[in-house]
Amino acid sequence: MFRRHRPQMGTLLYFLGALMLGLYFTFAAVQGDYGLFKRIEIRAEGAALEQELAILQAEVGRMENLTSRLSDDYLDLDLLDQQARDVLGLIRADEVVIR
Questions:
Q1: What is the mean pLDDT of residues 56-81?
Q2: Could you give the residue ranges of the DSSP H alpha helices within the chain?
Q3: Could you give the CA distance from residue 17 to residue 93 in angstroms, rounded to a whole number?
């Protein structure tokens, strides 16, 4: 008599469960909240923010320079004249304005 040997249902379920668990952890490692794609996205965002920080620091440096040039300790007359024209709309007596 020949007897067929088929795998038991428990073994099949065990390997199927292990496979599903492995696929889940692989998916989570690649696309999850702490996965590779998220890490790449965070690094790109960090690089963009560092560039924005450098631009803002340069702008702050420029504004500090202009502020110090208009301070009581050091007065730049050309800058003061430019600000008076831009902000207050002042002109000298010998100038003609054409609109």
A1: 88
A2: 9-31, 36-69, 77-83
A3: 90
Grouping H, G, I as helix, E, B as strand and the rest as coil, residue 70 is: strand
Whose CA is closest to 79, among 94, 99, 96, 62?
62
Residues 75 and 68 sit within 8 Å (Cβ to Cβ)? no
Residue 30, token pair as written in the block: 């690649």
Amino acid at 77: L
Distance, CA of 35 to CA of 41 (rounded, Å): 10
Give dist(CA 34, CA 3) in Å, integer. 51
Residue 85's contacts (CB-CB under 8 Å, 6 or more residues apart) are 91
d(CA 47, CA 51): 6
Note the pTM of the prediction, 2 decimals.
0.58
